[in-house]
Each structure stands twice: as C-alpha cells, then as structure tokens.
Amino acid sequence: MHYVRLIREILEAALALVPAATNDRAGRLAKVRMRWHPLSGVDADHFAEDFALAANASIGYPVALEIVRESASASCDLCGSLGEVAETLATCPACGHFPLTLEGAGEFVLDEIEIADPGC
C-alpha cells in the first residue's frame, strides 16, 4: 500500500466537507472523485486498490472511488505530430517514434465528493 499517506490526506480533506452531526443525523462520505493526469506520478490503478483498503481501515466504512483519467498533450520530435496520449509510454500515432515529449500539469486532484443521505 504505497499511497496510504496520500489517501489519508484526501479522506481528511473530504471528511472536512461532510456536514457535522445534527441530532444524530449526519451524512456519510459515500464517494470520492479524483482527476488523474498521466504526468501526476501516481499509478491510478494501484491507488484505486490501496484506496479501497485504506478508506475502510481509516474511517470504518467503505467509500466509492471514481478516477477521471485525463490525457496528456504530446509532440513527436521526429515527425512533429501533435496529439493527446493517455499514458506516458505512448508512441507517436503517426510514425511510431518513441519517446514523445509530454506536456501538462501532471495533477492528481480531489475533484468532488458525494455525501450519502443520512436517512438511508
């Protein structure tokens, strides 16, 4: 579980947005949505595996995770082709050259949370 610290920080930020208990009727964190960019340095698949275990262990109940995968802008130094790629090890779609020059913000961002209805 490589991402435990990151997951705990994300859960703390998300839980801070969940309304406090009022008359024993507080909503619960139901879902976390993250925006992932290929240059973020985070392996989205491993993060998702770790999240399921760490969320349940940290807050005592499961929380759904959605990862919105964004593309990176890429340019080919050989043929000059421009485009978007979904992974860092992509080859040029026009000429097959590797490696490509990748650009982008490289973000891994808490995008949205969903709170379960306390009546459920």
Question: What would your notes on this structure say?
Answer:
The protein has 120 residues and is an alpha+beta fold. It has one domain (4-14, 29-116): hypothetical protein PF0899 fold. The chain is built from two helices and six strands. The strands form two sheets. Strands 2-1-6 form a three-stranded mixed beta sheet, with helices on one face. It has a three-stranded antiparallel beta sheet with strand order 4-3-5, with no helix packed on it. Helix 1 packs across helix 2.
CATH topology label: hypothetical protein PF0899 fold
| Named CATH architecture | 2-Layer Sandwich
- The radius of gyration is 19 Å
Please report the first level of CATH classification, the CATH class. Alpha Beta
The order of strands across the largest sheet is 2-1-6
- Please report the distance between the alpha carbons of the first and last residues: 31 Å
What order do the helices and strands follow?
HEHEEEEE
The number of helical runs is 2
Q: What would you call the shape?
A: elongated
> Main sheet?
3 strands, mixed
Number of strands: 6
Counting structural domains, the number is: 1
Poorly predicted runs are none
Q: Give the rounded overall mean pLDDT.
A: 88
Strand content: 25-35%
Derived from helix and strand composition plus strand pairing, the structural class reads alpha+beta
Helix content: 10-25%
